[in-house]
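P.,

For your records, the input lines for the assembly:
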Amino acid sequence: MNRKQLTDNIRAKRSYLCVGLDTDIKKIPQHLLELEDPIFEFNKAIIDATAPYCVAYKPNLAFYESLGVAGWIALEKTVKYIKANYPDQFVIADAKRGDIGNTSKMYARALFEELDVDAVTVAPYMGEDSVTPFLGYEGKWVILLALTSNKGSLDFQHIKDESGQPLFESVMKKSQQWASSDEMMYVCGATQADMFDEIRRISPNHFLLVPGVGAQGGSLEEVSKRGMTEDCGLLVNSSHGIIYASTGTDFAERAAEEARKLRDQMSELLNF
Amino acid sequence: MNRKQLTDNIRAKRSYLCVGLDTDIKKIPQHLLELEDPIFEFNKAIIDATAPYCVAYKPNLAFYESLGVAGWIALEKTVKYIKANYPDQFVIADAKRGDIGNTSKMYARALFEELDVDAVTVAPYMGEDSVTPFLGYEGKWVILLALTSNKGSLDFQHIKDESGQPLFESVMKKSQQWASSDEMMYVCGATQADMFDEIRRISPNHFLLVPGVGAQGGSLEEVSKRGMTEDCGLLVNSSHGIIYASTGTDFAERAAEEARKLRDQMSELLNF
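Structure tokens returned:
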């Protein structure tokens, strides 16, 4: 999916919501556990219920890997289901991969060719040759970790170099030499909304994938005011607040309700 | 496996060789492709041939993920095969994972409980809460990326902070507050052997997992002279140089030969 298609979907739905499919077998409603593939059945119900209110889905691969082979099967089925039924949804594999060149190439093959997602989150620590193998797939995106939403982001991402520039800025500046804003986005956590002016100074045009709204405490309003570009330029993720809104048989309806609420707020905040 | 068991194995075998199972369906001998699970059959033959000469195996998860579900099945079979037949081998999942706390917990569960490896490589960019969920499993290890062997390691890992300390040193120093040298190792690439004196100044006692000898150009002798501790403190990895020594029907014999050569050099270099 290219940038125009993505922003057209945002315009049409008046939403820049990404629903995080952090599907945990220990947290899904009990009654699903009797089904053959409870993870997929849960995802399917969540997707059907929330699709009108979001433009993207983000399965976090850890949750699937933790179930071994059964988890991978559920993940593949989930991505196929979205692609077949909601082709306008942008699918992000939240994988946070990054390895030496020929290994990153294998991850790119796994995620873009086998799983066929639209975007992959990538960790920057190993530098250029760990990131560039994910580039060059038409309509596919790298979403590079810049400033994450967790407490540990303070450990290294804010370390200032000899010129006073924090590490996350070095990551954003250097990586802009590798790829344009038509194939790279950045992860910037909503919990660090006070940094969004700075982020937009470094990178006025890139899409940002913003986790940390809701359960983690980030403010949708703050992030949107500071981070929005002319064509939106934001995908704001919510996982637990939507998919675990209820653990009863009404989980899908309640998920839809939470997604709709966020869509309504987003519709107000959009500048077009 | 605890540190004493690992060093006892090194003593007994006079080897600190780790064989990297970067098994690529496009590179393995043609005649294996007729078998039901060529990846596993390749690994099994390599393991049987090289086990006398090494103390560790390191499957790189990218190579298995790139095959989807079939790859995960091959990986699980490979780890089980090593554990069942060569219980003295240290098994490293080269995964380079790292995510927010509750997600890292899922990866830890996937790799330590489901797959049951001895160690996992972890990326440090997201800081403490992305790393600590991998700790506290008895006899299991985190191997944190410090100074990697690839060209891109120059992009961020060497950035000096305001006090002149490069990022990889910040990573090593800060992470020593999270875990002892009985549960944490560091990845330090052989291609940066000139940094090993500095690395041993920061971390005199931690085991180092050293990729980059052989194909990538690092020197075993240099790394060993600068990096060895009283109980060895090194696991030196070789992947392609061993597993792809031949692409004919003699691939396992040739792998054994290459592994034996490295063991012989290591035996000379050991200080006990």
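Two observations worth noting. The domain at 3-269 of chain B is CATH 3.20.20.70 (TIM Barrel). The radius of gyration of chain B is 18 Å.

Regards
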